[in-house]
Amino acid sequence: MATIFALSRLGFAVLLLSNRLATEAYVSLLQKTKCNRIISSDNQTKAVAAIQAEMKLFQYPVLRQSDYDIKPALFPRFPRALSGDSATSRIAFIIHSSGSTGLPKPIFQTHGACLSNYSSSFGYRAFLTLPLYHNHGLSSFFRAVYSGKEISMFNANLPLSGSNLIEAMTAVKPESFHGVPYALKLLAETERGVQVLKDCKLVLFGGSSCPDDLGDRLVEAGVYLVGHYGA
Amino acid sequence: MGQLMTSFRPVEDKAWNYVRPLPKVEPYLYMAPRAQNTFECVVLDGLPSKVVSNCNDPPNSFKTSDLFSPHPTISNAWKYLGRLDDRVTLVNGEKVLPIPYEHQIREHELAREACVFGVGRALPGLIIVPSEKALGMSKKELHDSLSPVVQAANARVESFSQISPEMIEILDVGADYPCTDKGTMIRAAFYKNFENLINSIYLRFETPAAGQSEGGLVLDLEQLKDYLFNIFENKLGFEGLNDSSDFFEAGVDSLQAITARGLMMRELDLGSKTLGQNVVFEYPNVPALAEHLYSLRTGEESNQTDEIEVMRRLIQKYSTFSRHVPGPDIPEGEVVVRLALLYQMLLSNMVFRSLLGLLALLVPMCLLNWLPRKMSRPYTASCGHHHKKQLETEFFRP
């Protein structure tokens, strides 16, 4: 997150890549968006090397907390030479489609469009099982920032299983849940799973449509299940 | 696009799967009729969060390719039907691309039509309509003849899109299926038409094979372990698994976990119980999973010790520390032992600082030369942490 904010402040448009694309798809996205620098964590070294074999790409590590947690600041804050108006129409994020009809396509989002999107928050303390390269994940995160609410994210290094979800949700006691229907399916397998969903004021799903019988079952049990369209 | 519609609704309204336009967005949404009771969502020019357009009718609008049908009574509430461009979205959100896959199967002379299904399911499946050339062949022969082309198609797609042999159904030659007058299959109608067949394929995938109505293999604990090693090593291709290998860490992905679950459901006697969707990750290694399977069949309480319990036991076992009592007890320790101890301590502290390490080496060496007479004392030491203090005092004694 710190890296994303830092890049944004420096004036970069940030392309967020899924970590599970084919090399061909990465190369195509990077070329279409004229990106030549990539920031990646150590576990992506292989994927990055494969891209570097195809095109020129500078790799940088993800910022560590010790890089930016400097108190008091040793340097003056980075000044931005942009006025508010011109910044509004600049690109903030580039996300990409899943590539369902061929190679994934970049989707450009301006700062203005982002702010208009992020300002419509639910105002709940959220629990997120979606990755940040997923537009719903990214939006949920920034909605939390915009509204000054805590948000918890499921650790992507753990398998998404019912028991892990229950543990995590019991620990953070979220007011709203944001995930794909698959996560709901896992939680709906046990009574405790249904209970942690019931304890949320809002259960929001996206990414794919939720099977009718699963949703009906949860709604009957008293879960306030809400679908949404558009991220 | 930002959020367009949600199913936020009054508490008594149970229509959770009908989304309604957000008030701010409503003036910019146009539901364009595409077929009977089917509408495509079109976003009109002027919506602040709209960033692209792909259509000039109406000008500068964006056709989403998403299809909806209206609620029978609630006005302006829409149920999502699917995409115009035919994706098969699995329950975990992965999107299977049916068209290239089907094209590849269709190229085989024995196949007239192929249809990938799996919307809202855990894994995809395939229905094949055989061509006239397949006349007179048994289903088994057809399966075998088509198997190479299925393998070739699987090799070209992501792992979650791969279709396992158990998930393939071959219809009769000349079977009737919904298609346009040009002969193109109509996907939505195909799924509707073969709904029962598709349900039965998933059921078959999860239930014991015919002739084993009593629930398949009855195995004891050791046999179950061998059985599981066989599945993961031979059927799913994970080499070098042992008792403590964690499936997730070994790289088992969700499709493989589902496949393994399907195999277990089909082949094992589970005391007519159902395995959890994610059983492979909830019991993350072979012994734990074997024990779970065993307890399902026998009804015996699983005495599986999960890692948290193991940790708890370890903490308990190693949490009793005898307290160091300061006092005048001067033990019968010997200088030789203490020197060696001090030397070790210094080294272990400073092993990464080579210079100091060298010093630590030199100082005792000098002292050893300097105090040669003490070397001759007999060794009668009792060891323990509390030697440190005496060690320092004695060591620096003139």
| Largest sheet features of chain B | 6 strands, antiparallel
Beta percentage of chain A is 15-25%
Kindly provide the radius of gyration of chain B, computed on alpha-carbon positions and rounded to a whole number of angstroms. 35 Å
- Uncertain runs of chain A are none
CATH architecture annotation of the largest domain in chain A: 3-Layer(aba) Sandwich
Q: Look at the structure and give the CATH class of the largest domain in chain B.
A: Alpha Beta
Provide the CATH superfamily of the largest domain in chain B: ANL, C-terminal domain
Average pLDDT of chain B, rounded to a whole number, is: 78
CA-CA gap between termini of chain A: 19 Å
- The tally of beta strands of chain B, per DSSP, is 11
User: What fold name goes in the CATH topology slot of the largest domain in chain B?
Assistant: GMP Synthetase, Chain A, domain 3
What is the 3D shape of chain B? Answer: extended
Oligomer: heterodimer
The portion of residues assigned to helices of chain B is 25-40%
Structural class determined from secondary elements of chain B? alpha+beta
Low-pLDDT runs of chain B: 372-398
The whole-number mean of residue pLDDT values of chain A reads 86
The ordered H/E elements of chain A are HEHEHEHHEEHEHEHEHHEHE
Number of domains of chain A: 2
Q: What is the CA-atom radius of gyration of chain A, in angstroms? A: 19 Å
